[in-house]
Write a structure and sequence with these properties.
Layout: H1 6-10, H2 22-79, E1 99-102, E2 112-113, E3 118-124, E4 138-145, H3 151-154, E5 155-170, E6 173-184, E7 187-198
Antiparallel strand pairs: 1-2, 1-5, 3-4, 3-5, 5-6, 6-7
Length: about 200
């Protein structure tokens, strides 16, 4: 008859490599932490990139608008049988020296020298017309301009500055350069374009 010592059968030899040591736990936590920090840094950089891209897109459209406003002034001169360069601020010198102006989408004549003013986001009123009782209550992010009434009532200051520069190439040709400046997250950006308008009539 064989007796088996159950107690001895249930005894297990302790393996020195089983379980996790404190060093292994620390290393695992460190690896996980580095992964999380990397993902958060990537998300933050992506958010910053989206913001800069959005503002560059707006600035590019403001540049194009500046050129279109100058062209519109020239076309209006033709329709009204004025000199083709009337209301264009009469550039005071030949290229490459420019005369610098401010304009917005309402501008009918270049009269305001560039002094670095920020464009305002125009505010529209869908309830009460401006000038009557009540406050304008809705921002329209598609219109940027310069407004003399109080900003709290008529607009919100944007981050964009626009400089429109003109110079004569000859009696039938004006060079138009538009630059839009803005700051985003501590960095300065400039978006610009240049075009020549002609008296082709």
């Amino acid at each position: 008859m064989v007796y088996i010592n159950r107690r001895e059968d249930n005894m297990k030899i302790q393996n020195p490599k089983s379980g996790l040591t404190i060093i292994e736990v620390i290393i695992a936590i460190l690896v996980i932490t580095m992964g999380i920090v990397g993902v958060l840094a990537l998300a933050s950089k992506s958010t910053a990139s989206i913001s800069v891209s959005k503002n560059k897109f707006i600035a590019a459209n403001l540049v194009q608008e500046g050129i279109e406003v100058v062209r519109n002034i020239r076309d209006t001169n033709w329709l009204q049988r004025n000199d083709w360069d009337e209301n264009l601020g009469v550039p005071t010198s030949s290229c490459p020296t420019f005369t610098n102006w401010e304009l917005d989408y309402n501008t009918a004549a270049l009269t305001d020298d560039y002094d670095g003013d920020f464009l305002n986001i125009d505010r529209i009123d869908i309830v009460t017309p401006i000038g009557e009782a009540g406050q304008p209550d809705e921002y329209d992010p598609y219109f940027y301009g310069y407004f003399s009434p109080p900003l709290s009532q008529y607009g919100e200051v944007s981050i964009f500055q626009r400089k429109v520069s003109l110079c004569y190439l000859n009696n039938y040709q004006i060079r138009v350069k538009v630059e839009v400046y803005f700051n985003d997250r501590g960095r300065s950006y400039t978006v610009s374009a240049q075009e020549e308008i002609f008296n082709w009539k």
